[in-house]
Amino acid sequence: MPPARKRTRTYDSAKIRAAVLAQFGNVRQGVRTLTEEQLARPTHLGDWSVRELAAHLTMAVETVSRNLDRPEPAAKELALLDWPFATSARAGDIADGTRELARDNPGLDALYARAEQRITERLATVPDDRLLAARIGAMTLADYLVTRTVELVVHTDDLNRAAGADIPLDRQALAACTRLLADALAVKAPGASTEVRIPPYAVVQCVEGPRHTRGTPPNVVETDPLTWIRLATGRTEWTTALDEAKVSASGERADLGGLLPLMG
Questions:
Q1: DSSP assignment of 165-212, as one string?
Q2: What is the β-pairing status of strands 220-223 and 247-250?
Q3: Model confidence over 221-257: pLDDT tens digits?
Q4: Which of 120, 160, 188, 254 is within CB 3.0–4.6 Å of 249 for a Cys-Cys bond?
């Protein structure tokens, strides 16, 4: 008998919309407190400065508004779990656009204010099933907003680490980001021999091998949400997380080093 097909995770649209707006609001408030010295600091994202990273964060929501301004595509092209693997193709364009955005908008709070107003107004009237003409492929608004939690959470963490800031992470945004990246791992390495636990938000089974049915799985990986997000996006290496005891891995199929990062 073939294994049962795993059910695709669903997200509460109202909670995701609120999470995107809440996390963007958190970032806007945090960026307001950054000094010129902090804004000039380097980041670990190529040659971006903190100022450029802060400008880039507005693009996480402005792409929603811009895509809604475009004509609606005829058909859906990209499912939610396709997105993590489709983003790397646009890395060069994103880097160039970020530098230009930061150069043209020295007043960061004004940039944030415009982006916040636009997305708040648009989300008040647009239904979940509206298709967006995203550059990587047409997606529903509901799916695209889940991807915005990844962009916002990942880059908020980048900003905190580079600037020495303490911008909070909205709980719903962190949960959605963690779950989407965990599910992406299960897509990349289908199977049921290894259980990956990221409490309190996600548990997934992955990696080919003997199927676990009851009791404690023979192969278990466990870590916290932020460490998982850093592993999945290449901010932390697998061996480093193990050495620092930020992840535990037991069993012969519990080495995820060859599967990570999922997106860069």
A1: ------HHHHHHHHHHHHHHHHHHS--SSEEEEETTTEEEEESSSSPP
A2: antiparallel
A3: 999 999 999 999 999 999 999 999 999 999 999 999 9
A4: 254
